[in-house]
Amino acid sequence: MNWEGVYHTEALKAPEAGAKVDALVSELGDDAVSASADAETDGAVSGNGFNHVTVLLHETVDMLAAGPGKLIVDCTLGGGGHTEFLLEQGATVWGIDRDPDARRAAALKLARFGSRFKVLAGNFQDVESILAQQGVSQVDGLLADLGVSSHQLDTASRGFSFREDGPLDMRMDTRAAFSARNLVNEAPEEEIADILWQFGEERASRAIARAIVKARSLAPITTTAQLARVVESVLPRKGRQHPGTRTFQALRIAVNGELDALDALLNSSVRLLGKGGRMAVITFHSLEDRRVKQFFDLRSRPEIDRPEWPAPRPNPDYCFRLLSRKPVTAGEEELSTNPRSRSAKLRGVEKII
């Protein structure tokens, strides 16, 4: 298999074993795995149905300025928490999700809103084609609440979590052919190390990759518990955060192509939003937040300047107004009731051209 085609490497290679990489990790931001750690420890899920604690609910809905006559696309339908509140404000909401569990649960939960709510199957990276199939090329709002849901983490059979043993899977779309089991058991050692470094910012990426290859040479790694034990053999447990947090995050991002999907969604927003339309994005780690921040910042500057230019020039990508200079984060009340919100950052823009 061509592993370069499975995930986006960005030419960021895992550091050599023993390399001093603390400075780079500090530059990248150490919050890259905090959301996963929070969810593993604190995710609030009940035993029945697709339950997920919605973060920054009021802040997100306010940012989208939802109301009657507005068409909002929730690109990460999940448990339907944001969508439900948007519908209660009178908006029409179409929810996209690649997880069939989420779609089924949302369809039941939100059926009372009738024709103002529609469930669409797919990956949000294809949002333009998904909407085109519905005869729509422009919307009033786009919402994306990124990352893994509490339901996915809590359901052992989905294979996302080291908290409970389950098949090593991690596919958000259970119909997809490529799973974490394929990656862990088939990818070359160097590729695994690069994934762990790039998508998990794991400083022990090479040592963990080496341990994975050694373990799979004895027997296939088929469960989350097996993988967690391999990681713990390299990084003994200490403190609150499980040593496998970064590894599990990295594999999940690679398996689901999450960062490439985010890039595609951001680019689509420029074409899909009409003048006055708004986009709100909630991120949970620095890899996502950095992408969103840079995309929004670049397109919210009327002019751009470079040292070699005699004067600033008009920005050909200018089309947005930032809705907040800094990311919106959870207040004390939400933090006390939903620890998962600790890592959430909300950014938004309004289309002005």
UniProtKB/TrEMBL annotation:
S-adenosyl-L-methionine keyword on record: yes
Binding, S-adenosyl-L-methionine: G80, G81, H82, D97, F124, D145, Q152
Cellular component GO terms held in the UniProt record: cytoplasm
Coiled-coil positions: none
Domain of life: Bacteria
UniProt KW Cytoplasm keyword: yes
Principal location listed in the UniProt entry: cytoplasm
Catalytic activity: cytidine(1402) in 16S rRNA + S-adenosyl-L-methionine = N(4)-methylcytidine(1402) in 16S rRNA + S-adenosyl-L-homocysteine + H(+)
InterPro entries: RsmH, SAM-dep_MeTrfase_MraW_recog, SAM-dependent_MTases_sf
Subcellular localization(s) per the UniProt record: Cytoplasm
GO biological process: rRNA base methylation
Entry's EC annotation: 2.1.1.199
Key words of the record: Cytoplasm, Methyltransferase, rRNA processing, S-adenosyl-L-methionine, Transferase
Listed GO MF terms: rRNA (cytosine-N4-)-methyltransferase activity
NCBIfam families: 16S rRNA (cytosine(1402)-N(4))-methyltransferase RsmH
Protein role: Specifically methylates the N4 position of cytidine in position 1402 (C1402) of 16S rRNA.
Protein family: Belongs to the methyltransferase superfamily. RsmH family.
Name of this chain's protein: Ribosomal RNA small subunit methyltransferase H
Species this chain originates from: Akkermansia massiliensis
Top-level taxonomy: Bacteria, Pseudomonadati, Verrucomicrobiota, Verrucomicrobiia, Verrucomicrobiales
Gene behind this protein: rsmH
